[in-house]
Amino acid sequence: YEQLKNEKVSFESIDVDGIKELVSNNFEKLRLINIWATWCGPCITEFPELVEINWMYRHRDFELVTISADNPGKNEQVLKFLRNNHASCKNYLFNSNDKYALIEAVDPNWQGALPYTLLVKPGGEILYAAQGTIDPLNMKRKIVTVLGRYKDW
After folding, report:
1. Which of 99, 102, 108, 153 is deepest in the core (most CB within 10 A)?
2. Contact (Cβ atoms closer than 8 angstroms) between residue 43 and residue 67
3. Burial annotation 15-51 (CB, 10 A radius, 16+ → b, else e)
């Protein structure tokens, strides 16, 4: 556990095209994408659960990706939050103030409330999409079921 807490935590800037690429998931792993912000109470509450899910399944065909919807320029706040939560997964900060562009890039059906979470199979099939906090146990069950079913993508 201490080793996990000491892993490097960082984030990169991401634009609309980068987000579309993440959601299309042309990768060999099941991808859990969470959009959050440092000013979002429910986001802050659920974030440790997401980190735990990442720690549990990242050695399988799974990855957690987080995207902060904080305004560009909030780098210090975002990095501090990620470090405090030991989020050594792939982290991004949306590089624009245009939240409508963010919504369109992630999922046009999303109403814009945070947090927003997607579970995307390789090839881009969305298996789960919902705003509001996840039920951690149900998400773990879904991940295990999908990983067990699709060993050969």
Report:
1. 102
2. no
3. ebebbeebbebebebbbbbbbbbbebeebbebbebbb
Let me know: does 26 contact 122? Beta carbons within 8 Å.
Answer: yes
Q: What is the pLDDT of residues 29-61, one digit of tens each?
A: 999 999 999 999 999 999 999 999 999 999 999
3-class DSSP state of 36: strand
CA–CA dist 89, 107 (Å, integer): 22
pTM value is 0.94
Give the DSSP H or E segment for 26.
none
Query: Tokens at residue 32, please?
Result: 């859990």
